[in-house]
Amino acid sequence: MDRQADSASTIDDGSGLGERQRSTPLSDKEFSRLKEFIYHECGIKITEAKRTMVEARLQKRLRGLGLTSFSRYCDYLFGPRGMEEELVHLINVITTNKTDFFREPAHFHYLVRKALPEMLRQSSGRRTITVWSAGCSSGEEPYTLAMVLKEFIAERSGIDFLILATDISTNVLEKAKLAVYDEERIGPIPDELRKKYLLKSKDAVPKVYRIIPELRERTRFRRLNFMDSDFGFRETMDVIFCRNVIIYFDKQTQERLLNRFCGYLSPDGYLFMGHSETLLGMDVPLVQVAPTVYRKLP
């Protein structure tokens, strides 16, 4: 999904040209500089095939800043002011977020029918199930998890859950925290769960729905860049959902990240990945237990 982040101030490039004029094309040098910078800062590998996408999305930022060339944008970005003010906006513009409620539903069936019952059999007493949605986008995945987990614990005394949801984009995190979705977005949610866990707006148009407070209170959002040296977690995760995220990284970065994830995963914890992702050829302490579902080796 394309996103545009607005700036509070406009950069005057001294050209006297209006914002409506299209900026000059992205040069080879500028594209190379930007893609290397993006790779270094957030691990995303941008190929030549993505050049048109990068140029189109950054055009929006240039217009918002009042700049008429990518050269001037690079001067701003790599200057002291740009590194402080623009980096988050660049990441917001360049990252792609495709998500839905109950996306890849087989994962949620496996979670409540296989993974969680197995984990609970090996523990006793009261406990809180901790799930990390890594790359949570606008919140559909963590709120799906919240619905599923609330149903799971309904008939189990002494069991609660907590969901930690992270993303690198501040734009989508703001949407996720708000937890408001239009009628089209909630289509995949079963009717019985809609009635329990969504509040419908009183306005006839537009028809929007909000996740109930009980689920919002159990879902914590924070910004996280996978390239950060410290993720800042105090929690140990029973389950990690990191689906259709590592496809944007090269294999070396994927392997390094997955090993870091395992460092936060509890013994015998589960990792759920996207249908197009694989651990083939990677040295990670995980064993496959179902299609794109892995369990940490003891």
Question: What about the largest sheet?
Answer: 7 strands, mixed
Q: Find the CATH superfamily of the largest domain.
A: Vaccinia Virus protein VP39
The total strand number stands at 10
For the record, the CATH class of the largest domain is Alpha Beta
Give the amount of beta strand, in percent.
Answer: 15-25%
Rg calc: 21 Å
| Annotated CATH topology of the largest domain | Rossmann fold
Low-confidence stretches: 1-21
| Number of domain units | 2
Main-sheet strand order equals 6-2-1-7-8-10-9
Distance between the termini: 39 Å
Average pLDDT reading: 86
What is the N-to-C order of secondary-structure elements (H for helix, E for strand)? HHHHHHEHEHEHEEHEEHEEE
Helix vs. strand class: alpha/beta
Give the number of helices.
11
**Which range best describes the helical content: under 10%, 10-25%, 25-40%, 40-55%, 55-70% or over 70%?**
25-40%
Shape: globular
CATH architecture designation of the largest domain: 3-Layer(aba) Sandwich
Structure description:
With 298 residues, this protein is of the alpha/beta class. It has two domains: 1-96, Chemotaxis Receptor Methyltransferase Cher, domain 1 (Orthogonal Bundle); 106-180 and 210-296, Rossmann fold (3-Layer(aba) Sandwich). The chain is built from eleven helices and ten strands. It has helices at residues 28-42, 51-65, 70-77, 80-85, 87-94, 106-121, 140-153, 170-178, 191-197, 213-217, 251-264; strands spanning 127-134, 159-167, 180-182, 198-200, 208-211, 219-223, 237-242, 265-273, 286-290, 293-296. A seven-stranded mixed sheet has the order 6-2-1-7-8-10-9. Strand 9 and strand 10 form a beta hairpin. Helix 2 (51-65) packs across helix 5 (87-94). The protein is globular and about 60 Å long.
